[in-house]
Protein: Glycerol-3-phosphate dehydrogenase
Amino acid sequence: MGREIHDIFVIGGGINGCGIARDAVGRGYSVALAEMNDFASGTSSGATKLIHGGLRYLEHYEFRLVRESLMEREILWAMAPHIIWPLRFVLPYHKGGIRPAWLIRLGLFLYDHLGGRKLLPPTSVLDMRRDPAGKPLKALFAKAFEYSDGWVDDARMVVLNARDAADKGATIMPRTKVVSARREKGLWHIETTDTVTGRNDSHQARMLVNAAGPWVDHVIRSAFGQNEAHHVRLVQGSHIVVKKKFDDVRAYFFQNPDNRIIFAIPYEGDFTLIGTTDRDYTADPKDVRISEEETVYLCNAASEYFKEPVKPEDIVWTYSAVRPLYDDGASKAQEATRDYVLKLEGEGAAPLLNVFGGKLTTYRRLSEHALEKIGAAIGVKGAPWTAKSHLPGGDFPVRGYEAQVDKLKRRYQFLADQHARRLVRRYGTRAEALLGDARGIDDLGRLFGGDLYEAEVTYLVKQEWARHAEDVLWRRTKDGLRLSKEQAQSLEEYMAAMPAMAG
Structure:
């Protein structure tokens, strides 16, 4: 037919789909990926944005998941030191609390020693009457435990995996919906529709990977015609962002009377991120929004700890997402496994791999395990390679962020300090490609608000598939926190006149 036959066709442009595509193309497979919306527009941009072992998962005896997650923290940090960095967490304690001190100590001992910690500092005990971390909290908390985990710009991690996959030769198709997939003569025949232009297209592949996240069962039912697909339990998690509640660079881990936990995390310099909730969700994932009940819950839970209460009127932004957890029959949403499950179907001609569950921290290992199954199904190509790799812009030393900021400021002396820091946090070594030959701030073009200039928007359109203001303001950056509605609308009008150029 003259049409390219891909080795692998991936459905889903979240962290798992993009991670699998990147790993596969790096091993020599020919890969295509279709995402019906923008990258990370579902679950992968709605996380608590942590690279963490999952301290609370120990209570549910998920030792394999926690060990794998702990081992991944420093691997991912080294892969992308621009968008991932260490974060210390303060866990306040008082007598008569939800969990006894000995249980917390045991959990943190396991956390420190289950595997992988080389650069991150170990657990310590704080006197909250003297430590600055006690200042914003109620006097009830005289003691706290402090431990290490990491922070990630989740949506950027997704798009950088997509960018690297494309750089290595993968065909990456955002805003492309798979409308049908059928097996015929040993191949998958996939029909897609471009949701922007309406163009229909056909593709062929030796193997199909369904990594559609919350829509994984929907894809099985609609694209494959299997009406009895019920593999995932959809769990809604919501977050609120308020003006900065504390000056400390550390985050807080709060235990609630209902045995659930929330985090309060320094966010984007001027804000505090509070979340998450856990509740079952049955509607369409695209319609997920924070409920009034969740808003009240998060405000009340944080107010149990902070001297200054958190009120609904303090909220400057909220976001919600649906986690596609593998349905293991757990009775409570917060008890459902966070581990991932890979199901291979049709091990002969035209196999299918369905991906259920997973989390940001384990995406690289999930991808490796997926490639093991892909290799067994259609033949092995290449060896595992991502553990020593860098995501685009992350090719500098793991502790080299400050040096990278200094380097950028020396070359572009017109940059304000915060502007330079934000550019390195988003783009790492690729910030210089964005700024190009600029010799003054005026060379960056139109200012849309905050420190978002035309040069950055152009880069995001050309290199990272941004098409709308929302893509730029809430996924590629978080400048939506700093731009007014009028400024955001002005950006949308500007971008509407630009051609879509990424490839």
